Amino acid sequence: MEELRKLAFFTVAKGSAFGLFAIFLIMLGFSAVPTFSLRAGGFLALLMTMILLAKAWGAARADYRRTEMWLLLPRHHRPPEAHAKWAVTTVLHDAYITFAMRSAALAAALLGAALAVRLAGLR
After folding, report:
1. Gap between the Cα atoms of 80 and 99, Å rounded
2. Measured in Å, how far apart are the chain's first and last C-alpha atoms?
3. Can you state the angle between helices 2-29 and 81-119, rounded to 10 degrees?
4. Which residue among 79, 88, 107, 110 has its CA within the 20 to 30 Å range from the CA of 23?
5. d(CA 107, CA 65)
6. What gap in Å lies between CA 22 and CA 28, rounded to an integer?
7. Buried b (16+ CB within 10 A) or exposed e, 84-103
8. What's the pTM?
9. Contact call for residues 48 and 23 (beta carbons, < 8 A)
10. What is the per-residue pLDDT across 32-54, written as a single tens digit (0 to 9) for each?
11. How far apart are alpha carbons 10 and 21 in whole angstroms?
12. What domain range is 103 assigned to?
């Protein structure tokens, strides 16, 4: 089960990292206007949170054999067929929820920073 958890967190972290990289590049593009850059990053992080929550919600209905995590799992570490669907969907759901919470915290921090910059009178 621990091997499943590691791979689930690895695959979700990899996907989240690509999303964060895209958010960073968009924020970098708007860096001339710090308030707008921070707000854009905050709203995009909220969008990423909603996507991760939707993925968590749909994890139980997905075919576990077609997930990246299952394909990366060595055959000798794969659980028996009767237990596999429950185990894979449970750890994927947990990983999606964990990264959704982290994304929500990032969104709150970025939107809070945007508010602070705006209240401080900076652009």
Report:
1. 27
2. 50
3. 30
4. 88
5. 33
6. 10
7. beebbbbbbbbbbbbbbebb
8. 0.90
9. yes
10. 999 999 999 999 999 999 999 99
11. 16
12. 2-119
Give how many domains the chain has, as a whole number.
Answer: 1
Residue position matching structure tokens 């759901």? 93
pLDDT at residue 61, rounded to an integer: 86
Structure tokens at 33: 């206007």
Question: Residue 75: in which H helix or E strand, if any?
Answer: none
Which SS3 state, helix, strand or coil, does residue 35 take? helix
Written as one letter, the residue type at 44 is: L
CB burial of residue 64 (10 Å; 0-12, 13-18, 19+): middle
Residues of the chain predicted below pLDDT 70? 123
